[in-house]
Specification:
Structural class: mainly beta
Shape: globular
Number of domains: 1
CATH class: Mainly Beta
Distance between the termini: 19 Å
Number of strands: 11
CATH superfamily: NPCBM/NEW2 domain
C-alpha cells in the first residue's frame, strides 16, 4: 500500500547522524532498509506525512517492518513510531537479530497523519546502526 523505503526522499529528517538506504540480510535474504543513526544525546527523527486510506470491512491498517542493527551495539537503542506526535509503538532493542513489528494504525484510518520513525541512543550512540527493514503501511486481514 505505502512503502516508506520508496518514499524516503519525502521524509523530514532531524537530528540524525545518518539517514540513508541500506540492506540487511535476514534468514538468507537481502532486504531493503532505511538506516538511521541517532545522536549520542537526544533522538533522531524521520517524519513522513502520509494519507491513510479507510479500512475496508475485514481489514486493518498496520505499519509492518523488522527492526535491526547492522552490527553489535554498545548499549542498544530505543526505537519508536509516533503518529501525529503520540507514541504508537516502542521497543528497546539490545541485540542484533531483526525483530518483527506490526504497529496498528486503525485509529487513524481515513486521515492524513505524520508518521515518525524515532531512534534514541540511550546516551551512547556507539554502533547504534539501526535499520528499519521493509517499512510498509499495509492492509492485513482483521483479527
Amino acid at each position: 500500500m505505502l512503502d516508506l523505503y520508496r518514499n524516503r526522499a519525502s521524509a523530514k529528517v532531524a537530528n540524525c547522524l545518518d539517514w540513508r538506504t541500506d540492506t540487511v540480510e535476514v534468514e538468507g535474504r537481502t532486504l531493503p532498509s532505511l538506516f538511521q543513526n541517532p545522536p549520542a544525546e537526544g533522538m533522531g527523527d524521520a517524519t513522513f506525512r502520509i494519507e491513510l486510506l479507510p479500512e475496508p470491512d475485514g481489514k486493518r491498517l498496520v505499519l509492518r517492518f523488522l527492526a535491526a542493527f547492522t552490527g553489535p551495539t554498545a548499549n542498544g537503542a530505543r526505537l519508536s513510531v509516533l503518529i501525529d506526535g503520540a507514541e504508537a509503538w516502542s521497543s528497546t532493542q539490545t541485540t542484533q537479530p531483526a525483530e518483527p513489528a506490526d504497529v496498528a494504525l486503525s485509529t487513524w484510518a481515513g486521515r492524513t497523519v505524520t508518521l515518525t520513525l524515532r531512534v534514541d541512543a540511550l546516551g551512547d550512540a556507539s554502533n547504534d546502526w539501526v535499520d528499519w527493514v521493509r517499512p510498509q503501511v499495509l492492509l492485513v486481514d482483521g483479527d
